[in-house]
Specification:
- Strand 5 and strand 6 form a beta hairpin.
- The protein is about 50% helix and about 10% strand.
- The chain has four domains: about 80 residues; about 100 residues, no CATH class; about 200 residues, Aminopeptidase (3-Layer(aba) Sandwich), CATH 3.40.630; about 110 residues, no CATH class.
- It starts with a helix and ends in a 6-residue tail after the last helix.
- It is built from 27 helices and 13 strands.
- With about 550 residues, the chain is α+β, with helices and mostly antiparallel strands.
- Strands 4, 5, 6, 7, 8, 9, 10, 11, 12 and 13 form a ten-stranded mixed beta sheet that branches. Strands 1-3-2 form a three-stranded antiparallel beta sheet.
Length: about 550
């Protein structure tokens, strides 16, 4: 009979293999594994990964139940053994604790929703270096006390409200500050606040939102000429939406990750879709004060049988979107390609997109995980191709080698070279062929060529001037001012054309209202119909966009 360690390793090795024989083998191994006989943290992590995978990709009802039961036993075992918890510190496994620094809004949310599981751990900086950051966020009248050499910021805070810990006091100070959110984030990060999080429950969708799909096999290859099933939108109650958001945030935190659309979303800004094979995709937008002023930064989380298996964001401008896919490590070896096809289909359908691009980072540029996972080929198999000619030719050569030998694998050096080009997937020829980074390059060109690099000169009176042209009266409003300031240099470069085009002026006013206070989805839809604006932006990019690469 195999040892517990050997049984765990075997179970992990066959977790993504199917057929009657494999079902019986999995059940036998699950029965043989005695939780109390697990001795090493490596064995715990391997078993945890195998059980999660079999929950997401179960062969049948019996395998799903036994894997779930064993997962509960494993979690309880970890909870009962402090020595094991210590060994598993910072793994993110349910029943363990993690210590790290996270964004202000995320920490504030954690303290509000999980007060018993979140606490202050340490500062990364010396307390003497933290005081200037606290002073700039705090009300000036109060921070003057720090000019007294006998009063340190920490001592003062504990005197003001000794019943509250230092973490809650700092949260209160930052929360009351009127500093722009993104600046506040940077100051919070500069302080370097580490917190501890106890992960006490598994991250999964509510049972009411989950219908288990059982697998006879995994989809490894594209099904030619076979359309994907139509997504079914699910209406969520506010309670269910909050559960989805909580699950999405906690799974990211357990992997030491955050992305803005999930950190800065709200119940009314998410939409949920059921697709085939137990897949649910939740799309998330950001609250107005956190939105990008030009493109639309949207997030998504993919659930498989209720478990969060993948996530990423998309940056949408007109009918083109930059996108990526990040599969959590426990679920690699599953239906990654099929999941990504579903993600692309849903984005194309919901947001009416005609082109997708992938940034070099997603496929491995300055990203070891992207190289290690061979991310390039996930996108290549989904139809993406390198934009740069050198990488196009290399990809074709490598693809031919792979087709000739199933054992062939592209070397890390090759994958690093392939990662030096953006990828694109063009669905329709009339797709937008630029994005916000191209508009940024045009902005730089305008700044240099028309204003001699003088930012003050380029922006002086520009917001008020553009607001006047567009008849926007609330231009001093926080969100509206931010949007106008981001667009003004670009649009005023074509001031004459703008003044003479009443239709374009009306469209821009509508767009800015939507971006500042309205619906991000409506902004995207309106932008796609703004043909005059698209033409104007294309002209600006053609004339002014500068090449920043060396």
């Amino acid at each position: 009979m195999m040892t517990t360690s050997a049984s765990i390793n075997k179970l992990f090795s066959i977790r993504n293999q199917y057929g009657k024989g494999k079902v019986l083998e999995k059940l036998q191994l699950l029965s043989n594994i005695s939780i109390k006989n697990i001795k090493s943290n490596k064995a715990v992590q391997t078993l945890y990964a195998a059980l999660l995978f079999m929950q997401a990709y179960p062969d049948n009802k019996k395998v799903h139940k036994q894997a779930g039961d064993k997962l509960q036993l494993l979690t309880a075992y970890i909870h009962e053994h402090e020595d094991l918890q210590y060994k598993l510190y910072n793994t993110g496994i349910t029943g363990t604790t993690m210590c790290a620094g996270f964004g202000f809004e995320m920490v504030k949310w954690l303290r509000k929703t999980h007060p018993a599981s979140v606490r202050f751990n340490s500062f990364e900086n010396d307390e003497i270096h933290i005081q200037p950051f606290v002073s700039v966020v705090m009300n000036k009248a109060e921070s003057e006390i720090f000019q007294d050499g006998n009063a340190s910021w920490k001592e003062w805070l504990m005197r003001v409200k000794p019943e509250e810990g230092i973490l809650d006091q700092l949260i209160a100070i930052f929360d009351s500050s009127d500093i722009r959110p993104e600046v506040k984030d940077e100051i919070w990060n500069a302080i370097g606040i580490n917190i501890e999080i106890d992960f006490v429950t598994h991250c999964r969708l509510p049972q009411s939102m989950t219908k288990i799909f059982y697998h006879r096999s995994l989809i490894r290859k594209e099904k030619k000429n076979e359309p994907l099933p139509k997504p079914v939108q699910v209406t969520l109650t506010d309670t269910a939406a909050e559960q989805v958001i909580s699950c999405s945030r906690m799974i990211l935190l357990s992997h030491l990750r955050e992305i803005d659309p999930i950190s800065f979303t709200a119940a009314k800004l998410i939409s949920c879709y059921h697709l085939s094979r137990g897949i649910t995709i939740v799309l998330m937008g950001m609250v107005p004060e956190r939105r990008h002023p030009i493109d639309s930064y949207m997030g998504y989380m993919v659930f498989k049988n209720g478990l969060p298996v993948a996530y990423a964001g998309s940056w949408i401008l007109f009918n083109s979107g930059r996108i990526g896919l990040n599969v959590f490590p426990h679920y690699r070896g599953g239906e990654t390609r099929f999941i990504f096809e579903q993600v692309l289909q849903l984005h194309a359908r919901v947001y009416n997109l005609k082109r997708f691009t992938v940034d070099p980072y997603q496929i491995g540029k300055d990203n070891h995980d992207g190289i290690h996972s061979g991310a390039f080929w996930i996108y290549y198999q989904a139809g993406f191709r390198p934009i740069e000619k050198k990488q196009q030719q290399m990809a074709e050569t490598e693809a031919a080698k792979i087709s000739m030998s199933k054992k062939y694998r592209s070397s890390p050096a090759v994958l690093k070279t392939l990662a030096n080009s953006r990828l694109e997937l063009v669905l329709q020829k009339n797709a937008t062929r630029f994005d916000a980074t191209d508009m940024s390059r045009a902005y730089a060109g305008i700044l240099i060529k028309k204003h001699r690099g003088n930012r003050q000169l380029s922006e002086k009176g520009a917001v008020k001037k553009l607001a006047g042209i567009l008849k926007i009266k609330n231009y001093q409003d926080h969100n509206m001012h931010f949007v106008l300031k981001s667009w003004c240099v670009l649009l005023l470069c074509k001031e004459k054309e703008l003044v003479q085009n009443s239709s374009l002026k009306k469209t821009l006013k509508t767009l800015f209202d939507l971006k500042a206070t309205g619906s991000e989805e409506s902004y995207m839809a309106t932008l796609q119909k703004a043909h005059d604006l698209r033409k104007l932006v294309e002209e600006l990019i053609k004339i002014y966009a500068i090449e920043l690469r060396q």
